[in-house]
Amino acid sequence: MATLADTPARGPAGAARTLWREMNAIQRLALALAVILAVLALLAPVLAPFEPNAQSLMNRLRPPVGFERARPGYWLGTDELGRDLLSRCLYGLRLTLGLAFLGALIGLVIGGTLGLLAGVRGGRTDALVMGAVDTQIAVPFTLIALFVLVVFGNTIAVMVLVLGLYGWEQYARIVRGEVMKLMRMPFIEAARAAGAGPARIARVHLLPNLVSPLVVQFTLSLSNIILLESTLSFLGLGVQPPTATLGAMVGVGRDFMPTAPWIVLAPALSILIVTFAVQILGDWLRDRADPRLRKR
Amino acid sequence: MLRYALRTLARMAVTFLVIVTLVFFATRISGNPLDFILADGLTSEDRAILIRYYELDRSWWHQYLAFLRGFWDGQFGLSFIERRPVGTIVLERLWPTAQLLLSAMALTLALALPLGILAAMHRDRWIGSAVMTLAFLGYAVPNFVLAVFLILIFAYWLNWLPVVGNATAWHFILPTLTLASGLVAALTRFTRNAMLDVLGQDFMRTARAKGLSERAVILRHGLRNAGITILSVVGLQVAGLAAAGSVVVESIFAWPGIGELLVRSAIRRDYPVLQFGVLTVAFAVIVINALIDLAYAWADPRLRQRGA
């Protein structure tokens, strides 16, 4: 298996240059988009021309600049309450990406820890963890999310928890598989003979070898989580109004589709750009990590 | 085979029991279950009576058994918005959902299998990359975003298709397309990869060497062997995608199915309906997966031996 560490390293800059040379045009575009989106999300408070929730009765349902009735300054137009769509999209992007990042991180920690435990301890621990993994796979996660959000209330904290629970089983399976493979290798045997305990073996010998599969899985699960969050918010079950997330903006804007389609189009196109960029990068990292797929 | 079937059945039962148990305890640790079972605005005397009635003063162990017994007796409580038995409400919704899923599945199979085979046969030519790009789009575009675009174009701008409910055959087009997009993408990818694995095998060369037409080689020898792999994917991936997708698609198109019911009862906090609906769908998915697991074992004897 090729790992990120295989890249002939001349410092981080050299590694980055090698990676860049390997990418095709679409993947470079996706990377550039991802960087731009991350910057936009981070700088949303600086860049947004208006407060995301500031209403303006005089400027309700204004189309984007360039159309009839447009108001200068409202680049993407306004919604039914006269809120600036550009500002809301920026803040929505910020929240969507932030939630997804936090969720993927929680999934990584939970799933990675359980997978490590299962792989290192084996036996009953392994059976228990894999049983939980099978149960999680057996039930569509949307159902679990619906249920948890209703029972525990749809606050941001619960939302983060739900997103964190999504995909932990993927990390657990991958880490467990890698660990089981590594545990049979001579260098682990040698470490054990030298007197290293399970904790030391896990920290010093296993973790460094797990970094690259985890990075791949993190990117893939990031795009899944973005999809889940925007879907839940779209359905009105996620982050509650007036807080802007891209999914919620599409959900609320739905009612104005015949007369003011831009309210839906601005956040919907933003979601498309985000998922495309993240998905392309995820696919690229996965194919790169698996030489069997690289040929295809 | 019988041993394998029994083991699958046992695993199915355990999974479902775990889910029922989790649902039970989730409602207990998140507060007084009365707040979920009953509407607001009760006097304290009414509350006391209801606590007695629902046996909430008994031990949790007793309550858990009573909860399980409810499944056996078909007693799942009343919807506190519609005041009708939860079982009836959920059952009414099954047929529209089944209709939508069946039409989406039919479209998926009709598109994904030929597309996947095509992409595998012409993988280095433009047609192969065109198919894979389409599959990528289907995979990366969220269901609800696609639905919004389809509604804008075909309902509002062109005025060709209806978007609310399931009254006529025309009503099936947009929901079916939306739901099928993700499924087609997933299945095309897997068909292609499974076919690529098969195309390199020795028996394919043998089949060609003995003079079979390319069509017979691909369909009779290639697809039949790739089919086993594809079947396993149809189970796990597609059942999950379809369940998640139908929740979204049904609520967008106001389709009177179980997915729309789940979202509606979640928003209105109609807790008994949501609980039973979630368990019903979970049960359906588990049963379908078990059936596909069995079909898989039946088609591939090696699996039975291994006992998976």
Characterise the protein shown here:
The complex is a heterodimer of chains A (296) and B (308). Chain A is mainly alpha-helical and 296 residues long. Chain A has one domain: MetI-like fold (Orthogonal Bundle), CATH 1.10.3720.10. Chain A is 71% helix and 0% strand. In chain A, helix 4 (85-121) crosses helix 7, helix 6 packs antiparallel against helix 7 (156-165) and helix 10 (198-234) runs antiparallel to helix 12 (262-289). The longest helix of chain A has 37 residues, at 85-121. The model of chain A has no long low-confidence stretch (mean pLDDT 84). With 308 residues, chain B is mostly helical. Chain B has a single domain (86-307), classed as Orthogonal Bundle (MetI-like fold). Chain B has helices at residues 2-29, 34-37, 44-53, 60-73, 86-121, 126-140, 143-157, 173-199, 202-209, 214-252, 258-267, 271-299, 301-306. The mean pLDDT of chain B is 81. The A-B interface holds A 134-135, 137-143, 146-152, 223, 227, 230-231, 234-237, 247, 250-251, 254, 257-258, 261, 264-265, 268, 271-272, 275-276, 279-280, 283, 296 and B 11, 15, 18-19, 23, 26-27, 30, 36, 123, 136, 139-145, 148-149, 151-152, 156, 193, 196, 236, 239-240, 243-244, 247-248, 251-252, 262-263, 266-267, 269, 271, 274-275, 278, 281-282, 285-286, 289.
